[in-house]
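Shipment paperwork, digital attachment
Item: protein structure file
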Amino acid sequence: MNRFGSFRTRVLIGSALGAVGLLPLLHLSFIFLARFRPGVMGFSHLGLVAGLAAVGLGFTGFGLVQVRRGLSPFTRLREGLTAVRTGTERQIGGTFPSEVQPLVNDLNALLDHRERIVRRALAKAGDLAHGLKTPLAILAQEAERAEAAGHHDVAVAIGHEVERMRRQIDYHLAQARAAASGATPGARCLVQESAEALARTLKQLHADRRVAMSIASPADCVVRCEREDVDEMLGNLLDNACKWASSRVALESIRRDQQIVITIDDDGPGIAAAMREKVLQRGVRADEAAPGSGLGLAIVRDLAELYGGSIALDGSPLGGLRARLTLPAA
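Attachment content:
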């Protein structure tokens, strides 16, 4: 960038031009004080006054333009930081004056360093989870052997604990992934793609129940989340809806300002109003006789909150339960 385009130069030139522009205006005030009497101010004096005023205003205006252009890089820097914070950009782009560019370079280096640290931590968490899956698989096989040998109580106890540990691993992995996604700019996911893929899988999984599933999500419903986390949240909610629905499950998403609101309705028995807040807590199930660990809705709640969103349960127009998931728009 040339020297004239630097922040310091533009501010100095703008200040100097502003000062030069004030001199004719100051001289103009003296002329008015000295000569503005009835019958004394002639056409020549009026022309001089108009000329001085035009020159002064011209210099002052040009000086203000230079100062404003000198400060414009800070506006662009703020816009770049906003884009990074909202997830539309991963780094601050563009060229800045020599006084500002080192700051931009340091910010971009910090963002890159933070992203690498988060990704490395997430990879370590994945390695740990993978390492635990083998011992859990062995324990599950031992439970099957115990069942075959007639030790039913032992098999049930081992199987229950294995399943609980698996869900705990999935729960903490989901939290770690969401924390990494929330710290890493640029996460985006189209709700429609995630919902339709999950619907195809769940229709096969619950084929024996013949549940009709509908998806209504426009193209502008894009959330600022990683696809894996959206799949985790919608997967838990849709799976619950399919388990309890009598015949119908409906997903709909709409954009409201800077948020995407996703509603999932079913025509099942629903949940009593007194229980709706409780089932969002870890380990709490609406029906203790039903299979599960009570972590599904808690995972959805924690993931949503890590992204700055929320989950709420209410009665559905279909007669069952409505889950309302709110996430930040990308």
